[in-house]
Amino acid sequence: MPHNFDEIIDRRNTGSFKWHYSDDTIPLWVADMDFKAAEPILTAIEQIVQHGILGYTVPTEPLYQAIIDWHGSRYGLWLDKQDILFSPGVVPSLVLLMKVFTEVGDAVLINDPIYTPFMTKVLDNKRKLVTSALKEVEGKYRLDLDDIEAKIVEHKVTLYLFCNPHNPGGRVWTLNELKALLSICKKHNVAIVSDEIHQDLTLSGYQFTPLLTLAEAAGYAHKVVSLTSMTKTFNIAGIKGSMIFAKDRALLRKISKQQRLSDEHELNLFAYAAMRSAYEEGGDWLAQALDYIEANIDLTVQFLEKHLPKIKVMRPEASYLIWLDCSAYFDDDQALYDALREAKVELSAGIKYGREGHLKMRINVACPEAVLREGLNRVYSALNSNENPKA
Ligand SMILES: Cc1ncc(COP(=O)(O)O)c(C=O)c1O
User: Fold this and answer.
1) Which of 243, 277, 286, 305 has its CA 20 to 30 A from that of 233?
2) How many CB atoms lie within 10 A of CB 282?
3) Ligand 1: nearest atom to the Cα of 93
4) Is residue 34 domain-shared with residue 123, that is, in the same domain?
5) C-alpha of residue 118 to centroid of ligand 1, in Å
């Protein structure tokens, strides 16, 4: 069924984190789409409400099967039911896995730039934060494998919190990159937690490889965990809910035990229902959403090339988030963010994703085209008249 992605739905005064303004500012920041959820998901939720009983609920066999089929048929990640654990969110799982693999004071490696909680959760949980900057080569980020290995050795890293597809920058790491990474981590006995929440937003021409599909062959499944969720894919983040996958029985027992310390192994009944219907029946909505997103990415790239040609645009391989280098226009991160806010458009400030985000902005283009066009006009008015004197 064709979905109307052009529909503009007013999200103000709904408690929306994204639309938090009292004026008509356009939010092109947090990774939340302005599209109505897929019909089958809404129907599944309505059915629960109609039924009227909202009691304790556990995952059902059809739910496990839906998760298994989705990941197996799309990515060749064939899971057994026992390989799947549930968690309220990917960020809570990052913290959980940090507790499984490390002790207070241990060194945890991340890349820079990276989705902010990777940094804050390591520090909040009193682990030592070690960063390896991504290298920009021909307009794309690359893993600096030499630097990663050097940092692992220098800081005695025990855990690597990895992001694939990467946020921000949108890289879908290739098979070869993943194999090289696994081999370095195995050599130095470093556990890897791979945040794969953006997996289903892989854009045409790219192939997402779950790290777990390589871990077993590398004889390293006991040290690899992947985290993913239906919430980002299907724009149902307010429902909360995610999955933890691993392929090693002893590791799964350890994770499960850690989860039960704080009783964090269950989801609410709406999340289970949304997850099942998303994976059973959401494929059509997702395909249409990705087409719409690709068109919005094209529109944005063309607009910026024409009107703000000094912005360096990193075209994503996955997701609806585009990484923009605005250093030709501004020389101060706060001034850049403020100028955009003054023009009544909000983007995510790159500096929040680490030092490598200096003078970068992340723009979210998952909104109706008309909203995006107006947002881009505002970006133009904020940046056009400015020039970085040092650039
Ligand atoms: C890489 C990455 N991981 C995790 C999350 C959030 O996951 P959750 O809401 O399940 O905690 C996001 C949200 O933008 C993200 O981009």
Assistant:
1) 305
2) 26
3) 11
4) no
5) 10
